């Protein structure tokens, strides 16, 4: 009596599967299953199921590419920020007005009467003192050159202090300050009340009222000027 021959079992080697794939289970179907993405996954050949080894090199390569892209993006952003122009902050109106008064004081003290008069609206400034309207812009400049020009002793040293600025509108402000013209003969003391206007992008004095005094200010910041 003869017995029918059994089918020889299929081993991984006979099925043509590399030995790096290790069998983990036996199944009865002959379909091939795997991971299309090329990573870890199971493969079934002729009923035998084998596990793929992870492609660690490919994953590391992708991670490296991603890190490089992020690094280049960050560097590009930093370069853009560094190249962006820096806009200086616009000075506040009060700071601009105080700068005008400081420039006038400095101009007078170097005998630059033309520079001093740049602080006044030309030609529409109004001067009021001693109970009457005074000369216009050009007449005032001529008066300064004639009566205060020449030797520094005639000009004296001008000080504006105790300055108070009140903004009335975007283009108008009130300024009140004390002044002292320090010189050996006929020193002058008093208070200026000024209407400041912003004309042509710069602040100028449109109305200047002077209240003079023969008595020194006891609160003068220069100790030598106090009574």
TrEMBL record:
<dbReference type="GO" id="GO:0016853">
    <property type="term" value="F:isomerase activity"/>
</dbReference>
<protein>
    <submittedName>
        <fullName>Ketosteroid isomerase-like protein</fullName>
    </submittedName>
</protein>
<feature type="domain" description="DUF4440">
    <location>
        <begin position="97"/>
        <end position="205"/>
    </location>
</feature>
<dbReference type="InterPro" id="IPR032710">
    <property type="entry name" value="NTF2-like_dom_sf"/>
</dbReference>
<dbReference type="InterPro" id="IPR027843">
    <property type="entry name" value="DUF4440"/>
</dbReference>
<keyword id="KW-0413">Isomerase</keyword>
<dbReference type="Pfam" id="PF14534">
    <property type="entry name" value="DUF4440"/>
</dbReference>
